[in-house]
Design a protein that fits this description.
Elements (H helix, E strand, L loop, with lengths): L15 H16 L3 H14 L4 H13 L3 H14 L4 H13 L3 H14 L4 H13 L3 H14 L4 H13 L3 H12 L3 H11 L5
Helix pairs in contact: 1-2, 2-3, 3-4, 4-5, 5-6, 5-7, 6-7, 7-8, 7-9, 8-9, 9-10, 9-11, 10-11
Length: 201
């Protein structure tokens, strides 16, 4: 495994207790809003314990927030190598791969996350987004329906479902989704009406 962090191999490895203490220090710094200092601690942990999953994930999330997607991808890739049976590890890498336009990789990552955690609604949503970008609209529709079933009160899957219906030239189905959204997310329903030009009939 190629470590993101370079540095000298002479840096003393962390013991379990020291790693625990440093991890808590980083968490406290994050809670205090001192992100830069927290990241320095995580980088120190990773330099001395390259297999620390918490440090890898924390640095990956931080890189993602800064828009450094390639760096985030490398951190999450290392985390997945260490923990390939974790659905979150597959999801994180797939999420960044989609941002980078690596759609085949993203699709496989979301599918792997779902295989490990069948009810991971955000992985279904991510997979649907990838399928739309690949032009596979009928498949995307099935996936967004699954997402909406898992999260019936979340507007995101319903919104995407309506958009796919429009793209498939199925206006009545899209109107049905909009009517459904009006029952719990009227603002999203109104937005869809404006974007699609569909009005109640």
């Amino acid at each position: 495994m190629n470590s993101v962090q370079g540095g000298s191999s002479r840096v003393p490895a962390l013991g379990r207790l020291e790693r625990f203490v440093l991890g808590w220090k980083a968490k406290v710094l994050l809670l205090l809003g001192l992100q830069a200092r927290a990241l320095e601690v995580f980088q120190d942990i990773l330099r001395r314990s390259p297999q620390d999953l918490h440090a890898l994930n924390s640095l990956g999330y931080a890189a993602l927030q800064r828009g450094e997607h390639e760096l985030a991808h490398r951190y999450f890739e290392q985390a997945l190598e260490l923990n390939s049976r974790a659905s979150n590890a597959h999801f994180n890498l797939a999420f960044v791969a989609e941002l980078l336009g690596r759609l085949d990789e993203a699709e496989q990552g979301f599918r792997s996350a779902i295989a490990l955690e069948e009810k991971m609604d955000r992985a279904w949503y991510g997979l649907g987004i990838v399928l739309v970008r690949q032009g596979r609209l009928p498949e995307a529709l099935v996936v967004f329906k699954r997402n909406a079933k898992l999260q019936p009160m979340s507007p995101f899957g319903w919104y995407q479902m309506a958009r796919v219906h429009v793209d498939l030239q199925q206006p009545e189905e899209a109107r049905a989704v909009i009517r459904h959204l009006k029952g719990f997310e009227p603002k999203v329903a109104a937005q869809l009406e404006r974007e699609t030009g569909l009005r109640p009939v």
